[in-house]
Amino acid sequence: MAQSMRTDTTPHLEVGRDRRDTVLRYALLPLRVFLGITFLYAGLDKLTDSTFMHASGAGSLGDLMRNVRGSSAVPALVDLALKSPVGFGYAIALGELAVGIGTLLGLLSRLAALGGALISLSLWLTVSWASSPYYYGNDLAYLMAWIPLILAGAPVFSLDSALRARRRQFVGWWPR
After folding, report:
1. pTM attached to this predicted model
2. Rounded Cα gap, residues 70 and 160, in angstroms
């Protein structure tokens, strides 16, 4: 009985490479969904909390800002928020909603991720700065989680990629 030796393994290598490329394309999707839902929920939670959007009182943003002022890294940012706690609260809540929606839909995804990073940075420098050890403060982890989305955007299941594909199709159609 003759034995044959297989010499052509190229197709099998390409199949593995295609799988790896597919996994890499979808790698940021779970992070995008998590951050989008979390920021959407955070914005809605602030807007629907009956005590949060007040200048004073238990559970209010004003009281929170006064309590963290002495331990924040940037007290001037807290002072700015204290000039109009209700306005600042609405700005943060609406910003979180915009970031959450943009991230989930993949619309202006890099801009949404930058907005999420800036919100997380401002919260880290004010509210959770005094967390000890530092890794107990979740705002720093959120800040780091936004960075890959700032760099990569939303390559799959996004309005950005659909619009990009449509633009390519339109440009290809245009007579030369």
Report:
1. 0.82
2. 42
